[in-house]
Write a structure and sequence with these properties.
- By secondary structure, this protein is an alpha+beta fold.
- The chain has a single domain, classed as Nucleoside diphosphate kinase-like domain (Alpha-Beta Plaits, 2-Layer Sandwich).
- The chain has 8 helices and 4 strands, in the order βααβααβααβαα.
- Helix 3 crosses helix 4.
- The longest helix has 11 residues.
- It binds uridine-5'-diphosphate and magnesium ion.
- Uridine-5'-diphosphate binds next to loops.
Length: 140
């Protein structure tokens, strides 16, 4: 069993896609162990995406990610990190495979509807960014 952090980005919340997106993960055998709707400040978005601080898209990305409400969730399942990334599809919706969330709903390379941790190390940092120990204990 493995846990990963997933975000429904502002474009997904704005277009009323929360339920549809969670359903896709559930139908693929992943389980929601923690869930909240929230809104990041610009500084929080910059901290969350700190690994990208030197990339040209960092400024726009963090402005976008703090532009509206998001949904954060912890998903659990076998190989949850890899499977979540497969279910999401490629970063650029134009390159994402048929049936993936980004292919179905992504607007462009930035507004690509969902985030998922890319490795166990990332998940270990990203889960506590949004959820306390208390929120993660015995919720299954
Ligand atoms: N992003 C962007 N332009 C790019 C690459 C990425 O706006 O050229 C945004 C996009 O929202 C992406 C996020 O930055 O989801 C993080 O980029 P990363 O390469 O880590 O993609 P991901 O892991 O989300 O597929
Ligand atoms: Mg990434």
């Amino acid at each position: 069993m493995e846990r990963t952090l997933v975000l429904i980005k502002p474009d997904g919340v704005e277009r009323n896609l929360i339920g549809k997106i969670i359903s896709i993960f559930e139908e693929n055998g992943l389980r929601v162990v923690a869930l909240k709707k929230t809104k990041l400040t610009k500084d929080q978005a910059k901290a969350f995406y700190l690994v990208h601080k030197d990339r040209p898209f960092y400024e726009d990305l963090t402005t976008y990610m703090s532009s509206g409400p998001i949904v954060a969730m912890v998903l659990e399942g076998k190989d949850a990190i890899k499977r979540t990334r497969e279910i999401m599809g490629a970063t650029d919706p134009k390159e994402a495979q048929e049936g993936t969330i980004r292919k179905l709903f992504g607007l462009d390379k930035e507004k690509n509807t969902v985030h998922g941790s890319d490795s166990p190390e990332s998940a270990l940092k990203e889960i506590p960014f949004f959820f306390s120990e208390q929120e993660l204990i015995a919720l299954i």
